[in-house]
Amino acid sequence: MNHRMRRYLNVVLAAGLLGSIASVTPASAGMIGTEEAAVDSQASNERERVKALVARPEVAKQLQALGVPPEKAQARVDAMTDSEVRTLAGRLDALPAAGGNFTDFQWVMIIIGIVIIALLV
Questions:
Q1: In a domain, 21, yes or no
Q2: Which domain holds residue 95?
């Protein structure tokens, strides 16, 4: 029985090894266009803008009051995809400028809501 089990395991392991080797695809390299490089750079800039907003003292204070440490909020922004960051940055651009209709508390609530929505998606 032991010999039969060992032989069965050897066959299964060999099949798994062959299957994993067969699924490996060769690497390919190519040039990327200016547009692709610009999109990556733009996403990085937008991510930094969102992180800077989350790092603002009044935002950090409000996040802390809601039980979200500033470090965790920064980590959540880092975990967002580029499209989520672009969407959030677009919403921030659409908001009125400082001194507009929103108070600091409303800004914080908007940011928190967006971060929560991004986490749920």
A1: no
A2: 34-120
